[in-house]
Each structure stands twice: as C-alpha cells, then as structure tokens.
Amino acid sequence: MKISTHQIVFLLLCLACFLPVVNPPIALAIGIVFAQLAKNPFQEKTQLTINWLLKMSVIGLGFGMNFDKALAAGKDGFIFTIISISLTIGAGLLLGKLFRIDQKIAKLISSGTAICGGSAIAAISPIIKADSKQISIAIGSVFLLNSIALFLFPAIGHYFNMSQHQFGIWSAIAIHDTSSVVGAAQVYGNEALEIATTVKLARALWILPVSVLFAFSSHTALKNIKIPYFIGLFILAILANTYIPNLDWLAPKIVAFSKTGLTLVLFLIGSGLRYNSFKRVGVKPVFLAVIIWVFISVISFLGVMEIIQ
C-alpha cells in the first residue's frame, strides 16, 4: 500500500511526541495546527487509538502511585466531586432551558463538563437517545474548552502559587476530559499528577449514578449504561505498585511510557479539532459550555484554596 506525503508527515509528528521536549500542551498545539493545515489521514483509526491508548496510559500511571496516598487524595476530592457534579448538571440544565437550547445537547454538555468530558458524553448519549449531530455539538464544545484548559490552568496555578495538592484537586474537578486533566497536572508536577489522576478517575465513576438518573427520566433501559471497567485496572496497578515487591525496576519504565502515551493522545485529539467543525457547533451550545465551565472552575478554585492547605 502506497503511503502519501501527508500520511508520512502525520506519522512523523506522532513519533515526535516521544521526544523529551514535547510535553502535553505542545503536543496538543502541534495537533491543532496540523488539523488546520491538513485533515487527519487516519481519522477513524485515530478515534479507536485515542480510546484505548488513553485507558492503557492511565492504568500505567497507577504503577507510579502509592495506595495510601491515592486513598487520601480520593477522600479529599470526594466532597468537592459531589458538590461540583450536582451544581454543574443543575446549572447546565437550567441554563439550557433559559437559552432555549436543545435539552439533549444541554444534558450532554452538562454531564461532559461535570464528570469526564467525552467519556461521559459517550455514556449518556445512548441513554437519552441523542443523534450524531447532538453528540458532535456536545463533544465539539467540551473539547474546545479542554484545549484551552490545558494551556490556561497551569499558568493560573503558578500565578496564585497553588500547591501540588491544590492544583491536583482543582484540575481534576474543573477540567472536563481525563486526557486534559492528566496533561495539565503532568506539566504542573508529579504530585499534582498523582492526585489529579486519582480524583478524576474516582469522579468518572459518577457516570453510573448519573446514567441511572437520566435512564429513569428518559424511560430508557438500564442495559444501555456503560461501566468504565478500566478504572478497576488502574486501582489494581496502584495496589501492585504498593504491595508487590521487586517492581522498582519495572514501574518507572511503565510510568514513563504512560506519560508519553498521554502526550501522543493529546496530539491525536488536537489533530481532530478543525476550525470548520467548531463553526458548525453554533454559538448557544458553546456559550452554555463556557458559562458552566467558568462557573464550576471559579467555585472549585475558591473552595480548594480555602479548604486544602
């Protein structure tokens, strides 16, 4: 099979993500620039790769964590998680009605912002019977803000002298998608990365109760609910790293590979963020996404700065 110059350039940029100088924000920026100049030549395969590589990379990060510390981080983020999810979904649905936005789009954007971005949208969409256009609008709105957050949040954290602990909690609550949470926290520091990953995945488990609520309100069968099984493997990785002896030689290699994998994931995500796609989203859904994102970002920032020392 003949490979075009376009495809070769894309593959070389993928390989560049393995270079030490390419961090998650740079990888995302390269992907976005590429997307404006040329269409991703492997778009369908890219979506499948993002899905599996993100899960494998997050599981791999578990080999760099201690179970007791992870449990403590989960406890610290628990109360923030409950409050933020309730406020975000409630505000999103209310504002959706106020702005006369399609309620299915409002539900998708609200759950994506509240829980874990694209994963939540993918889980909720079959339950509320959203069509491809509604899903595309929600994902486009959420991923646009994810991209901004990846660059903006570390700068805000440093400006306000947030500790690693504070930033880890805040980024896990206020950034939508797991990939951008981990990317921003990875730039901020190793402790922030551990805390953010743990809190974000604990947050992702709330897909289940939220899905059940939407299923009942939409009169949909519970069999349509998707369970994020990979989070269990992430926990097993933490337990293995904490309690299985003689993993010292292997665990750092797995973590290093996982960080590189996440950098590649963000390049691949960026390569699909074309300007024309966002033009089709429309103003109202993006406006809704921005309002509830800013709302939960500010509220969670103030809460973290006040409570977490």
TrEMBL record:
Keywords: Cell membrane, Membrane, Transmembrane, Transmembrane helix. It is a multi-pass membrane protein. It is found in: Cell membrane. Its main location: membrane. Coiled coil: none annotated. The chain crosses the membrane at residues 77-96, 108-128, 134-155, 167-189, 195-215, 227-244, 250-273, 285-308. PANTHER family: INNER MEMBRANE PROTEIN YEIH-RELATED, UPF0324 MEMBRANE PROTEIN FN0533. This is YeiH family protein. It comes from Zunongwangia endophytica.
